[in-house]
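Reopening this ticket.

The earlier resolution said the output was attached, but the attachment link was broken on my side. Pasting everything inline this time so it's all in one place.
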Amino acid sequence: MIDMAQTRIADLLAGRTPIADHAPWPRYDVDALTWDAIGQQLAAGATLLGLWGDADAVHAAVTSAELDKPCVMSLPVRSGAFPSLGRHHPPAIRLERAICDLYGFTATAAPDTRAWLDHGAWRVAAPLGGKGAAAPRDPTDYEFRPVHGEGLHQIPVGPVHAGIIEPGHFRFTANGETVVRLEERLGYVHKGIDRLMAGATIEQAARLAGRVSGDSTVAYAIAFSQAVEAALSLAPTLRAVWLRALMAELERIANHLGDIGAICNDASFSLMHAHCGILREEVLRASNLCFGHRLMMDRVVPGGVAVDLAPGGIAALHELAGTVKRRFPELVELYDGTASLQQRTVTTGKLSAELARQYGAGGFVGRASGRAFDARKVPGYAPYPDLRFDVAVREQGDVDARVWVRIAEIYQSVALIEQILAGLPGGSLDTGVAGQSAANGGEGLALVEGFRGDVLAWVRVAADGTIARCHLRDPSWFQWPLLEAAVEGNIVADFPLCNKSFNCSYSGHDL
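Inline output:
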């Protein structure tokens, strides 16, 4: 008998025929034993890219060293239950809890069966599973994990916060000023994106995708567009692909500048916050001049882009690149040379390389802890194979390392913008997806590098050209739990600093 727990994912899938009309990477139907074995391989070092539900199935996107490309495994749900991946692989736990809330499935042998997105206010049970009405529950009736020991006390924070910020509850257990445990409760801004996507036209769904997390609107729009294009076997125009990358790098610079300033502000160094804010404003104004919107929302669409680079845009972006190259190094020197600031950021909020690898942490969270993953490189997508850039990596895993990764990426993005402007091809902007024939239905998957990390999009396009199912996975799903680990052992007063250095998305998580 084959020991499936010791069998590599590639061997588990050997001889299986991929499901037709799923692109660009394969999807396989598997049985419960194979599903469980995949969970054990995730525990052994493979990476979970996504886990989501369907009307009668669950899907897991995975990758590993022995696979030459990501793949999706699909398990039919029998009698409303499926084997828990979370019992082998902790990063799957919250995703499983969300699936159970939305579809009413049971994750067998799951280590955590508490509701996650469902706070008891929906008045329906399992809204995507059609379970019918449900009596409202007290939203405060939630059991946080117990912590035992002498001299411990709890500090509840949120969900309403003092600043202009989305809601989230943080339950600290502390010994004096030292954090012993942090547990988060999210889901307060659940918007029902999965349900809104079902039956929407491609154009309507593209607008929804761009609003999942507004600071990453370009990244989400590219991911959704790539998934639709894969499903429909469409290739966007070359000029559109390069313009998408141009927008993505502008978005990355603006958000990194905002984060660096906000981190310094949480360390009581408001001067950096002010100067980074001024420079970020330059980026947003240039984006508006070039593409007609400060955040470039609704500018990337399936099939291409909605607008061309405005007249004078090339000159404006060259001017912006010069401004950043001239003024940003002064801010970096100010950050690095301010002893009081370094005392707050260096060694604070350390995330181990092992946890970053286990959770498949993307973006600056993973790269600051030695995980050199960037979806622009692997699996990669156009036009980045034609552009030169390095993946910025640090090993220290602290707040300071996450700042330095952002600093390096700002320099890299400025260089990428200059390369894109130098090589920007001509041609049309949009191949068009409107009016695609019924024969063009299919399924598509995409992985796109946003400023926080990799954004996953999976779509099923129905025969009538509408969206039958769409799942969008924010990098924050795998980063929020790591914030809990990183803050342990730090003082309570350093939580805002740790939190901002992660800058996880509430909205992107609470679909």
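Reporter confirms the inline version is readable. The chain has a mean pLDDT of 95. Residues 37 and 207 are 38 Å apart (CA to CA).
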